[in-house]
Design a protein that fits this description.
Layout (H helix, E strand, L loop, with lengths): L2 H13 L5 H15 L4 H12 L9 H33 L4 H26 L10
């Protein structure tokens, strides 16, 4: 080691508040292990991890469940809107006993469905979303 390198070494040790040569070697060894180019093994590990991130990772049962609940909710919203705007008024106009019986069933069904949806959403882990594929 020449004088310039020794001077630089001393400056670095002072800047980092390192008082012993052993502590300096410890820091150098750590930085060397972090800065060294990636080995084939670490590249393979990263590639393996990338295979199972975001949308490439198979969906969890929680994600599948919420997806199915959302699909059911979408269909129920359509059916309920037809019920409220067309079927219920028609049945009520002809004094059908089905009007009041089905009214309660549709209302209760919507409440139960939204409750199931909220519970399913709460069960998702961070980063998860409703999906099947």
């Amino acid at each position: 080691m020449d004088n310039t390198q020794k001077g630089n070494l001393k400056k670095v040790m002072q800047a980092l508040n390192i008082t012993s040569r052993e502590d300096f070697e410890l820091v150098i060894n750590y930085l060397t292990s972090v800065i060294l180019p990636e080995t084939t093994e670490s590249v393979a590990e990263k590639e393996e991890a990338l295979r199972y991130t975001d949308s490439r990772k198979p969906p969890s049962e929680r994600e599948k469940h919420l997806y199915n609940v959302n699909a059911l909710a979408t269909h129920f919203e359509f059916i309920y809107s037809v019920w409220r705007q067309q079927l219920y008024p028609s049945l009520k106009a002809i004094d059908s006993p089905l009007a009041s019986k089905l009214y309660d069933r549709f209302t209760d069904g919507g409440i139960f469905l939204m409750s199931i949806k909220r519970v399913a959403e709460k069960q998702l882990l961070p980063g998860e979303k409703a999906r099947v594929d």
